[in-house]
Amino acid sequence: MASEERMAAAGATAASAAVAGTPIKIAIMGEGRMGSLIRSTAEVARDEAGAPAFEVVAQIGFDLSAADSAPAADVLVDFSNVATLPAVASYVRRTGAALVSGTTGYDDAQTAELRSLADVAAVLHSGNYSLGVAVLRHATALAARELAGFDVEIIETHHNQKVDAPSGTANILLDAVVGAEEAAGRGEYHPVFGRHGMVGARDPREVGMHSLRGGTVAGVHTVSFFGPDEEVSLTHRATSRQIFVNGALAAVRRMAGRPAGWYGFDEVMFGA
Can you give the residue ranges of every domain in the chain? Predict the structure, then answer.
């Protein structure tokens, strides 16, 4: 089904649900900080008529086998860990629930498994659910396209409990740079993950990727463009995880009732 047709069908479903005042049933994978914050926010959210916007029908924690018997939901929200993917896949295939996933760190095989779920359900996966980061990605692509010949470095900073590096958001920004440079016909660009020792002169087609970890930092991402005698830096700073929760629940509203398929964040949130 074409993107326009999928969106029209989803819009009709959403409009119908809004008229009926029926809360969207959600299941949550994970009981960590994000899972807990998603639940507490969902439980107090209200629609335009003042009625509950969501009904949390299940939250799956360390006992992943609970996914096999958890009630069916309209949408499964997963901001947990790559280790939960088998339980996520099992739940989606059993119930047909749409999936809103913000889990990062998947390897190629896990990514393929995640994508295969789009055969049976609507799937949205993004490394970041902040609207500000979406704007940063667009700004990064614009800067990469216009600043020909500038050296590009990406630095991301997160709390000391984050298990994957670089962050999913840093990879999104890397894709924006590489895509813009290649679209401009300037050859193939590639990431370099940190530097150590006698690395020699910088390859003009490399994109430096650097990960900092410490404290309780929710997330800071900076893309810097270094040219002759000038520098341009673009930064997004998250002061709490609430921005990601708000974006995820906004995505849940838009994913409920969509036909099976693989969806992009911009497509869902901005109709792009």
Answer: 3-125+242-270, 131-238
Determine if the pTM surpasses 0.85. no
DSSP at 160: T
The pLDDT mean for the chain works out to 91
Integer Rg of the chain from CA: 20
Domain 131-238 of CATH type 3.30.565.10: no
The verdict on whether 162 is a catalytic residue reads yes
Q: Is there a contact between 28 and 38 (Cβ–Cβ < 8 Å)?
A: yes
Distances from the Cα of 258 to the Cαs of 35, 242, 253, in angstroms?
Answer: 23, 25, 10
Is residue 150 within 8 Å of residue 226, measured between CB atoms? yes
Q: Give the pLDDT band of residue 19 (cuts 50, 70, 90).
A: very low
DSSP 50-118: SSBSEEEEEEE-S-GGGGGTSPP-SEEEE-S-GGGHHHHHHHHHHH--EEEE------HHHHHHHHHGG
The one catalytic residue in 125, 158, 221, 236 is 158
Q: Judge whether 159 counts as a catalytic residue.
A: no
> Which entry of 25, 138, 159, 162 is annotated as an active-site residue?
162
